[in-house]
Amino acid sequence: MSAARTSRVAAVSNEQLRPEREVRSIVDTVLRLAKSIGVAETEVHVDESISALTRFANNAIHQNVAEHTVNVSVRTSVDQRTARATTNRTDEDSLRAAIEASLSLAHSQPKDPNLLPMPGKQRYRGVNRFVKQTAALTPEDRARAVRRACDLAVKKGQTAAGILSSAQSQTAMGNSRGLFASYRDTHAVFSITMQEGGAASWAKKNAANVTDIDPQRLAQRASEKAHRATEARELAPGRYTVILEPAAVLDLVGFLFYDFAATALQDKRSCFNERMGKQVMGKNISIEDDVYHPLQLGAPYDGEGIPRQRVLLVDKGVPKNLVYSRASAKVAKKKPTGHGFMLPNEYGEAPMNLVFSGGKASLEEMVASTERGLLVTRLWYIREVDPYEKIMTGMTRDGLFLVEKGRVASAVRNFRFNQSILEMLRNVEMQGPAVRATGEEAFEMVVPAMKIRDFHFSEVTKF
Amino acid sequence: MWDLCTHSLETGKIRGASYADVRVMHLRQRDLTTKNGHVGTLAQSESIGLGIRVLANGAWGFASTDRLTREGVAACAAQAVSIAKASALAKREDVKMAPENAYVDSWQSPFRKDPFEIPLETQLELLLAADAEMRRVKGVTLTETDMQFRKIDSWFASSIGSRIHQRKVITGCGIVATSFQGDEIQKRSYPNSFGGQHALQGYELVESLDLLKHAPVIAEEAVALHSAEQCPQKTGTLILGGSQLGLQIHESVGHPIELDRVLGQEANFAGTSFLTLDQLNKLRYASDIVNVVADARLDHGQGLGTFAYDDEGVPAQCTDIIKAGQFRGYLSNRETAHLVGLDRSSGTMRTESWNRLPIIRMTNVSLLPGTWSFDDLIADTDDGILMETNRSWSIDDRRYQFQFSTEIGWEIKGGKRGRMLKNPSYSGITTEFWNSCDAICEREHWTLWGTPNCGKGQPMQTMGTGHGASPSRFRNVRIGAAFSKQ
Does one domain contain both B214 and B245? Predict the structure, then answer.
């Protein structure tokens, strides 16, 4: 056992990631072992994560977990064939076994004439998303914050459920052509549902820096909305003006992300097939992919180690550009944009850091400007009904309110919607500033609150 | 492995745990896919580690490690106790567990052909051949195939003296043909969508599917859907194929009966349930021909919810969920059993991996076979729509209101299957829907379908569940709302 590993054992309550030199040493060991057995090309990814999550319900902690994982993933490429093998053991015998497993898989398939040689050394723009305060969060810190939120619930006669989690992770990759890249970040999440009688409301935030999250403020917000959500009345389904809070916007528009992949268009499964360059959304909608945005997280390189580029995907409602892996770029005679997944895969690439341009309106201004509409806290269980028109179905959840004459009038029973995202983005009347939003259906993006006309609710449920 | 298990349990006890259980798990997985005649994913992975759950100061803590040394597992156990003590800072009452016996046992799921021993060339050759059969059909624009194999060894030990080793072999396989024309994307899958069929079987499952026979059929259907009539919007008679009914059971029976949801433990994420505790033995869940069980025993079949012991060391059981239409039971664990008057867990604690806490999960939640032949069911239907193979699914967070769409539909008129319908969908309220069931096909048409991708818990865990179903008929169902404009 190495000295570094021994010290990790001692600090059980405050584990730390391996030093970068140790991670690089794993990468180098794999490349050396592969070279020694004559592998033509080798790529290795090392991913390490330390995470902890405190879960509460019924105003008490009921689950409380921690994990520390390392995965080493090896891709070999020989004679126009490639395959991947992954292990969570880092001793030399296990790494050698992973190389051999990858080789065995690679040899079993037909040659792929389109397989590209691995890329050489690249230059990366630095990003700093590792926050010591997040990494240092202890079980006691989490328990105390949860206790305060639960105490608020008890005081208000409500029931709280949610999570407070923290994580630190690092990833490094290298290949036999001299490429090396590494990245580390931290991540914290607080999510809370407050229930009062049959009503509930919800608030959630995530950030690299745990001090950017105020659990008690979120608990207070959820508590106030849960109280307002009691005595919900039933409205008839139909088309309504809606004001979607950022989490609701995120969980819907999040389903667009893969449609911007060049491979999705090449496979004719994107909603932008035959629609590139056309006015398919409103002129007030612009979308880019930007891993360097201050509210974004993620490594500045893709699964092959190509630097991620900022890409303008939709300009004033017109889909203008796609993202490309090296393979899809070659097919389209374009340059790769640094959005490829780890090879081999059949999906190619995707933008993982969407940023909407947004607007300047506040949620209060949207409400004040609405004669009759619905204020939506959150959406739930969203699934694709029609992949080309991008019709999605799902439910409202945890706080749906009727807005009348510029004011929030009453709570409303939850609706099912069947709504085309493309149509929705043609009907946006007002937007708030884009924020880092978090929901449960899509990964985090930077999106605004939106006021949208003619949003289609097809059925109503019983609460 | 047992030495590591014992050492971690002893460490937990020394550090203050009043109860502990530990799982060492070794997971091996192989994934193969093709797309448009080329190999897509070709990958293998393995992971081994230990997770320990402890009760200390009346509260839970869980920690996991991939460091399988005595020092590593001891540190992990100490961390779990430390976390449990932190949990106790925000507890309402001490955790109580239903009694359970200690078991020392070893079990392996039955299989005829180990998929990891079948040459990769053979597996890829079959997928590429099926892929080619689908591409032969004019109008098909995308073809995809996949196989997935898993071998999971788990060593469970607990402070009450259990020592249980289980080995499971799981196989999955499916093919998909997609066609883009005009302003529509249509697709057909076999034998099911979203990865095909998955079961606790070996490579014999793949061989039983006869992919090459079905590949051109689904490819032709995918293209034909473009010229099919749109599914009408109406209230009427619906016949569901077995795989779609399996998912209907999963969403509208399997999830609402999970006691952790009922008790509010999933309120922030997966949601709660309309099946509050006062409904047990009182609610008319379904019509009187409907019988649903949660059965993890091998006798029920080789499903994704089949095992000998759950991940809390409780033997596999069969629990009545709906009996002659009446609501009879929940899925419980040792912590929640007493809340529904049980003196023992129903054995449904399952974990995705060594680094995840076991939580209440569906096992094989199945609709028992009825008495109808499929031909008689069609012949007995004057006006209805047959829907097959799921395309989308959604249900509210208390599991009342649902909407499903399927890949293909068929009009039934005058007791005969008629024209093809595209974009079929149906929706309803769970109990109203199940009470409208008036015919269930017999065992000959019954399949134990596998749902390999059920997400639940935080951190998220993906689990495989089984759902036995045969084609069944439902009356007065709302049809076509997914494509309604008003």
Answer: no
